[in-house]
What we know:
The complex is a heterodimer of chains A (204) and B (329). By secondary structure, chain A is an alpha+beta fold.
Amino acid sequence: MALFHELSNANIVGAKDIIPAYTTITVVYDIAAIRKITNTAAYKYISEQIEKAISECDWKNESSPREIIIPVCYDISLGIDLPEMSNQKNISIEEIISIHTSATYNVYMLGFLPGFAYMGMVDDKIVVPRLSQPRKNVPAGSVGIAGNQTGIYPLDSPGGWNIIGQTPLRMFDINNTDPCLVKPGDKVKFVSISLEQFHQQKSV
Amino acid sequence: MSIRIIKQGIFDTIQDDGRYGYQHLGINPGGAMDIIAASVANMLVGNRINEAVIELHFPASAFLFEKPCIIAISGADFSPTIHNEPVPLNTAIIMAGSTELSFKQYRKGARCYLAIQGGFDASSWLNSYSTNTKVQAGGFHGRILRKDGILHCHAEPFIYASLPPQSYILTPVKAGINSFYSSPDSIRCISGRQYGWLNDTSKNILENTTFTISTQSDRMGYRLSGKALQTTEQKQLLSCGVTKGAIQLLPDGQLILLMADHQTTGGYPVIANVISADVPALAQMQPGTVIQFHFISVEEAETLYMRQQQNLMQLQDDCNLQLKNFFSR
């Protein structure tokens, strides 16, 4: 994440997109834009810029990440996979909720859908694999677990994560100048809300 | 100036050169599938090359131009027709008011581009007019063009305003585009990050056998069918960024080739990447097309792309000169 910020702030000529992920950073570049300023091959130029960023990167600087609180209703009418998870892991639904809300998660990357944040690490006690058959439609706001990752579906979408609840917040809104509520590098904490609070907040 | 959609096409959208700078938020770039044809259509009417255009699939929309304007059509040949008279591709056309443009018959290619002088007055989202149908943003209200929809454009009334209604003029302003598309069937690529995961037999299959573009192909990507490929060991890959042209290996050994509306990240091994210069040719291939991959180096890929860009810039200068000569007569 430190390197993502270093690269983003470096204003590298021709860098069109910088995509952080768990163990990689992808830089999408415009060959023609780079060749306008240098005779070096664009691939070589970008490689050098990335190496420079790696050597100059302040790895300890986490640039004080934002902490975002996300209310989640864990009612089983919304968290439809809670009963099955409770069976599978041999713990109560209350314990699952308590474990999920006690950790602060890192947003490692956004991908799959606009605004879909991959967060971790999920406590081993509530780790479950993806569903063997993905659902055709998971409603926007659904909070899921897949392996040791947790995430929130920003849009109605097909999906294979185990759904444990739903947030009334809009994770993605095209009408906002910042369309995504969370960004790579943010910290996220979940707080449990009642079904009543969920409907109240959702209607706002 | 407005244009009425008098017949709805199967999947026609407004696109430009894509929405870059937001892939770290999971927002995919989209944009014209065949960026060369979109650029050429723009050049022929004197626009900047990344102006918004309409991308048409067959069966395509039909349009009624209410006021005089200049248009150009490039890319796939769907037999463009103005009031029952066929008109050529890659030519600037002056349209009088009340003139209808339709696309009568499929001939070749997969995507056709319509540009209008001044550009379409579409909705911009995150600095791009490209339509993202998934989040319903950009372009024409974030969706495909529908019957009775009205598009607006920035065109100003001009000297041909007095043309009789329902008429048109084919100008001598033309563009030759064949040099932009590589020889049919051969698609050049560079090896991908997980190329080394393939066993020797699979590397051989990838380089020496053909693959067919399946019917499960759209703006997101093309499924390819061919001999199944295998990796030397079953390794799991963490999701990482992917790009247009990436060739991913699915668990069943088949391939998927990512196109304009690809997801920003993926968890399948990327065994090769189609070079940028050959993506436009790929964008014009229909399901059923048989392709063979031809591996080249990153340096060669870059040289080919730069040559293509230089040809494109030359063509733009040439179009500008032709337009100037025509309008100064």
